[in-house]
From TrEMBL:
This is Gfo/Idh/MocA family oxidoreductase. Residues 4-123 form the Gfo/Idh/MocA-like oxidoreductase N-terminal domain. It comes from Metabacillus arenae. GO terms for molecular function: nucleotide binding. Pfam families: GFO_IDH_MocA, GFO_IDH_MocA_C3. Residues 131-264 form the GFO/IDH/MocA-like oxidoreductase domain.
Length: 355
């Protein structure tokens, strides 16, 4: 049964804590090959998970026995490695964000079309049972039409999560992470809103700041550690979003959907992962499963979903085009914050208009 060989490019925390253990646990994956520009990191994961190492990305991609590749590189390399992997005949699971620019995202999407291989992007919040149940309830208008929403995603920051556990993390470097907390956490929730509402964010305004995080030299970081946004969808829904690397007490990964006839609270309660409150005051609580956190690593389901798509030739859970749309919203947010204007996110994926 175990017959798929996986390659992992980039051996930081996301590979160590999510991709590698989930490949190891998948019954259809029998071997892993690791590459990192720091050979010791690759060797460590190979020892930990029983795999082997490659000396270069090109060596890994030239291995015809590798069918699937996880691109766990830092953000500035996604368009290089994912594009190369696709054009070398590999199915690709790319970490989010898909890239730093729309042009780079287009490179990856075009490579997927040319190769005919599966490209999936790791927006794993779609896979939680609470989000999936909430989507069904919204689709069926259990509480009527959606009117407004609010969402947040915050934790104490990537210096507590990254492989080196220092303020020298690449997440704090503008040329490498690009978007700070907006691209690290915010893009997850933008994809989730698109998924839950079957709608797309069309207009944004935002404030951002480097409020507390500092570099290894003690200077404010080059990217935002907090961003707060107002959002309007194509269908006219209104909402707010806040993303933070300075939630020091505990993570907050909650979303609340306000409908004509009540409220859906998702991951708002520690006890109930989905709460339904009708306008008459009736409360229905669902115990499903806790959402994965940095301090509580559980199976995200993304590898299982990716491998199932490869095995059964199914469409990806999150396509390159969908990931590109979420990236476009993040770019709009940052433009809005930098210009103090309302920004219209172009549906053509080619430009952003400042109003």
């Amino acid at each position: 049964m175990r017959r798929i060989k996986a390659g992992i490019i980039g051996c930081g925390s996301i590979a160590k804590n999510r991709h590698a253990p989930e490949y190891k646990a998948n019954p259809y994956v029998n071997e892993m090959v690791f590459y990192d520009r720091n050979p010791e990191r690759a060797a460590t994961l190979a020892d930990m998970f029983g795999g082997s190492t490659a000396h270069s990305v090109d060596e890994l991609l030239a291995d015809s026995t590798i069918q699937v590749v996880s691109d766990c590189s830092s953000n500035e390399y996604h368009h290089i490695f994912s594009t190369k992997a696709l054009l070398n005949g590999k199915h690709v699971l790319c970490e989010k964000p898909i890239s730093l620019t729309i042009d780079q995202a287009n490179q990856i999407v075009e490579a997927q079309k040319k190769s005919g291989k599966i490209l999936m992007v790791d927006h794993n919040q779609r896979l939680t049972r609470a989000h999936q149940k909430a989507k069904k309830m919204i689709e069926n208008q259990v509480l009527g039409k959606v009117l407004t929403f609010r969402t947040t995603f915050g934790h104490k920051g990537p210096e507590h999560w990254g492989i080196n556990k220092t303020n020298g993390t690449w997440f704090f470097k503008k040329d490498r992470s690009g978007f700070g907390v907006a691209g690290d956490l915010g893009i997850h929730k933008i994809d989730l809103l698109h998924y839950l509402l079957d709608d797309e964010i069309e207009q944004v305004s935002a404030f951002q700041g480097s409020l507390h995080k500092v570099t290894e030299a003690g200077d404010p970081i080059e990217v935002c550690d907090n961003i707060v946004c107002s959002l309007k969808t194509k269908q006219g829904r209104l909402g707010t979003a806040s993303f933070s690397w300075t939630y020091y007490g505990e993570e907050d990964n909650s979303t609340i959907i306000y409908c004509e006839n009540g409220i859906l609270k998702i991951y708002h309660s520690h006890e109930y992962q989905l709460e339904v409150i009708t306008k008459d005051g009736e409360k229905i609580n669902y115990k499903l499963e806790n959402i994965q956190t940095n301090d509580n690593q559980t199976n995200s389901g993304i590898i299982d979903a990716f491998i199932e798509c490869v095995r059964l030739d199914k469409p990806p859970i999150v396509s390159g085009e969908e990931a590109r749309s979420s990236l476009n919203v993040i770019l709009g947010m940052l433009e809005a914050a930098e210009t103090n204007r309302v920004v219209t996110v172009s549906s053509s994926i080619s430009s952003i208009k400042v109003n």
